[in-house]
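Subject: Sanity check before I submit

Could someone independently write out the structure tokens for this chain? I want to compare against mine line by line before I put it in a report. The sequence has 104 residues.
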Amino acid sequence: MKPIPFTPETEKIARRIVWFETPEEALADPIRFLAYAMAYATHEDMKTLRNHVSDADFEEALKNAPPGIIDPRSWAYWNSKMGHWPPPPLPQRRFGDDAGTDSR
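---
Independent answer below. Compare away.
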């Protein structure tokens, strides 16, 4: 996935939806950032992000979303938007013996 550019608009979005990191840190990992965006961005935020992110980028972010970021409702919505219905299972955190396996 190509990087999401650091602009005044993306900085503002990153500052609000990934409030616990600097915008530079948040935008440095586009898959993780898009996972947060799918859960917390407003419609206006998404309109701005769509200027920089393609459907293929959203597909990649959904396929590789870190566990624990996207809530079930947002997961169902974004998978539906990308033509995946029913949606696949949410990414799951793994602990112990399962930690070395795929996170889904």
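---
OP: Matches mine. For the report I'm noting this point. The chain has a mean pLDDT of 93.
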